[in-house]
Amino acid sequence: MRCKSHAPRKAIRNYVWAVEPVGYPATALVCGSVHCMEPAFIWLEEEEARQFDAGERVFRAFTATMKVRAA
Ligand SMILES: [Zn+2]
Question: pLDDT tens-digit profile of 45-57?
Fold first, then answer.
């Protein structure tokens, strides 16, 4: 979960789309970059973007520590 100034590096995951979490920008999601306090977007990989198109709104962090709901 990152803001658009600190987009995740493509070398790690191939994110194709960023969607807003519920309530954005007044969201509980905060950018994961070390010193950043900006509200974060949910970055989706290709398969997740397809699921979003099909109506899915809950997405997992890849560490399985939490899930987040998209708007
Ligand atoms: Zn940030």
Answer: 999 999 999 999 9
